Amino acid sequence: MGERTQVLVIGGGPAGSTAAGLLARQGVEVTLLESSTFPRYHIGESILPSVLPVLDLLGVREKIDNHGFVRKDGAYFEWGPENWDLNFNHLTGAGGYSYQVVRSEFDHILLDNAAELGVDVRQGVRVTEIEFTEGRPVKARWAATGDRSVTGEIGFDFLVDASGRSGVMATRYLKNRHYQEAFKNIAVWSYWRGVKPLDKGPAGAIAVCSVPYGWFWAIPLHDGTHSVGLVAKRTTFAEERERLGGIEQVYFDALAQCPRIAGMVEGAERQPEFKVEQDYSYISERFTGPGYLMIGDAACFLDPLLSTGVHLATFSALLAAASISAVVSGDLSEEEATSFFAKAYRQAYERLLVVVSFFYKSYNRQSQFFEADKLTRRERHMLNLYESFLHIVTGVEDLDDTQDGTGALDKVADRIRSQGDLDTQGGILAGHNEAMNSMPASPDKAVSGLYLELQPRLRIRRLAEPAVETE
Predict the structure, then answer these.
(1) What are phi and psi of 188, to 5 degrees?
(2) Euclidean distance between CA atoms 306 and 319, whole angstroms
């Protein structure tokens, strides 16, 4: 008899460690295989307030709070001719703050926490093959990263693919990943020491400043460095690289056109290494199938403009854990639970993708706020556009939608599909805007009759059946 577990999680980043930890807290047997040995480097250092309730569910928020990460009270944008602050203290129910993190440390805390919750965490173990029975994954073969002669296999009831951008299921087996042509961007970044603090915006803010062919981020970190990166359209970057002679030259040429960031790094010391990443938005045709769920970057990835990476990772992990535990406990059928997961996660990704598109299409701040308001489920007065926009870009709206049972996710997902899903050949269909604006607020329609409950324990609930009238 081979080794066996109820749930196998591939990947130990924020998505994998969160899903595994939450499942373990529900009494589910979980094994997590991570190819790296933590701590390991990762980009994506600016975190949104939507992670706070997830950290609470994991019982790890106090540890994160006390670690020393820079407290992030909001963001500062200089976009074209406009500039404005996003203050997280305007949010309700999200804690009013977040963190700027060194991801090697942040991710390590989450992975160690998963182990403390009872997850069988195995680092330095790479999944080499997945075995299927009638289309359902049932077994994984693995090899030690440091010694490929050390191998094994493990059977499971459910597979959670949290393997990040490498995407074991999407790229090796399903072949169902599609890149968004509109966001085929490239990012080049480095780390600076001795950077002048941002003199605008909320405390600990990320600075996001546009340049003629892209934008810069500047993120303060608790180790005394700043992460400073350039994002540009891949084709434009290639042209500038050819014209100027190299990656470093493009970076500094763009920096010279960004007075805010250039002033911050003046006199600072840059670490010698440049890091590069590209193709910043993609989505899989489906996120689930018999016996598996794809979460975080394994399912989809969004341009980093709004710092949504860890939000989408932990949000999808939360949905996945609730869905699988509902099946294990017998509360829901597998089809019901995974349908809820897929609709909720796709909705979160698509709405944020549309918001990012507004930034890239226009320098008109009023337009961005107006469109963001149309994407929320609330009917707000024009004076509340700032709050509406803020709720979307901090991920809070996604948590709200899954808990209140209003049917927003169900209706939006149906409308988007009926009018044409994301254009897999390139970009966003014009019908998205109207579809996003059609969210209903009726309390008697949930996502396939289901909604998420976080307290007193994580679960998926059915809407109460109507009382039967008696004579």
Answers:
(1) -130, 125
(2) 21
